[in-house]
Amino acid sequence: MKTDVKKYLAKGGSQFRLKDFSTTYEGHLDKAAGKEELSRVKLELSTYQETLYAADSHAILIIFQAMDAAGKDSAIEHVMSGLNPQGCQVYSFKTPNSEEYSHDFLWRHYKALPERGKIGIHNRSHYENVLVCKVHPTYILAENIPGYKDVKKIDKQFWKDRYESIRSFEKHLVANGTVILKFFLHVSKEEQKQRFLDRIEDPSKNWKFSAGDLKERALWDKYMSAYEEAIRETSTDYAPWHVIPADKKWYARLAISEIIGDALKALDLKYPVLPKEEIAQLEGIKQQLIKEK
To answer: Whose CB has fewer CB within 10 Å in the chain, the N or C terminal residue?
Structure first.
């Protein structure tokens, strides 16, 4: 039973509000049925991926953004399990290094883009530059941008320009054959708390938690404001955001997989058809192989 994933599509503009999107799945599908449906969707993804590779006309860029413990890593793991690793690339972006800081903020992300025929997954992305950097504007100073030596210079116009840079970047990619799917895993503060407690109580998960996670949690409202504005400013017809309810991980994985499947299906890709002369040549080679002793 296919779920209604269209309701998670975020329309940009002044009307967008995060509070209009629930953090939990409220439908009638249960966990067991959801997992069964996910297995079916994974098979579809595998078939679509093979056609994507053969057609060699499009690339797929999948972007994941979320608060800590929202389930990005596990969502990527489950999506990946339905794909051929040879045709899929995953990049996890951390704090920029000295070389990356010596270029514009999009440079390192451009280098990580998938080639035609492949799927690229970005765990965090160029959006960190209007999310984490907006909550912590001092990070912008490390970019050494002319005219921005003091956080007081980082005003509303700075962020408007950065949103414009992102929109232009994504528009360029789409115009050249890249399909962009952006997912915000929308987890509640209460669920994040429980997942943090689980990490602390389970020795095998201790490594996932750090004191820094708690410091960022204290800035929850600032992050929600940053996410809301980023989605409002950059959810476009050519590169839309999807706000996925993430309190139930099993459902988030299913919804994400279905949206990716729908996007691949919409491309209506076909296997290449060889010219008549090449088909005739193949027939000759076939007969030669059959006659071999």
So the answer is: C
Domain ranges of the chain: 5-291
What would the DSSP string read from start to end of 201-241? H-GGGGGG--HHHHHHHTTHHHHHHHHHHHHHHH--SSS-E
Query: With contact defined as beta carbons under 8 Å apart, do 121 and 62 qualify?
Result: yes
Nearest to 37 by CA among 226, 213, 253: 253
> pLDDT category, 1, cuts 50, 70, 90?
low
Query: Which pTM value belongs to this model?
Result: 0.93
Instruction: Tell me if 224 sits within 8 A of 231, measured CB to CB.
Output: no
> CA 64, CA 76: separation in Å to the nearest integer?
9
Q: Which residues contact 61 (CB under 8 A, 6 or more apart)?
A: 113, 114, 120, 122, 173, 178, 179, 180, 181
d(CA 225, CA 207): 29
The string of pLDDT tens digits covering residues 119-144 is: 999 999 999 999 999 999 999 999 99
Could you tell me the CA-to-CA distances from 207 to 75, 112, 203 in Å, in that order? 19, 27, 8
Residue 197 has pLDDT above 90, yes or no: yes
Q: What is the C-alpha to C-alpha distance for residues 203 and 187, in angstroms, rounded to an integer?
A: 23
Task: Give the span between the Cα atoms of 186 and 70, in whole angstroms.
Answer: 7
Question: Residues 29-88: pLDDT tens digits?
Answer: 999 999 999 999 999 999 999 999 999 999 999 999 999 999 999 999 988 888 998 999
* CB neighbours of residue 163 within 10 Å: 16
| Cα 251 to Cα 23, 43, 81, 202, 244, distances in angstroms | 11, 17, 16, 23, 9
Q: Which residue do the tokens 């966990």 mark?
A: 31
pLDDT at 246: 97
Question: Is it the case that residue 244 has pLDDT exceeding 70?
Answer: yes
